[in-house]
Design goal:
The chain is an alpha+beta fold. The protein has one domain: Alpha-Beta Plaits (2-Layer Sandwich). Helices cover 29% and strands 26% of the residues. It has two helices and six strands. β3 and β4 form a beta hairpin. α1 packs antiparallel against α2. It comes from Allokutzneria albata (Kibdelosporangium albatum). This is YCII-related domain-containing protein. InterPro entries: Dimeric_a/b-barrel (IPR011008), YCII (IPR005545).
């Protein structure tokens, strides 16, 4: 699950509620990783054989990803429920749930 930045101020109890949520997911063994991402970053774009590297920040920063949580759950529905709980804690904004493919 990724989350996008917002201009809305965080709820007063954000850190307390988020710490409880992270602890719960950690104890349940479903939280694999979580973290924030720098707002600027570097964009690497390819077109044919041309590779372009552009330093941020970018004008469309609201489209960038501000943070992520990597969870291992049994179903898409379970991942969506965790995302609902996360949004209830952090308030208005947008998160995206995507499946990770790999070994």
């Amino acid at each position: 699950m990724t989350t996008r930045p917002t201009d809305a101020p965080p709820p007063d109890d954000l850190h307390v509620e988020m710490a409880k949520f992270v602890q719960e997911l950690t104890e349940a063994g479903v939280l694999l990783a979580t973290g924030g991402l720098e707002p600027g970053g570097v964009r690497v774009t390819s077109s044919g054989s041309e590779i372009t590297v552009t330093d941020g920040p970018f004008a469309e920063t609201k489209e960038s990803v501000a943070g992520f949580a990597l969870v291992e759950v049994a179903s898409k529905e379970e991942a969506i429920e965790l995302a609902r709980r996360f949004r209830a804690i952090v308030g208005d904004g947008e998160s995206v749930v995507q499946q990770v493919f790999g070994p």
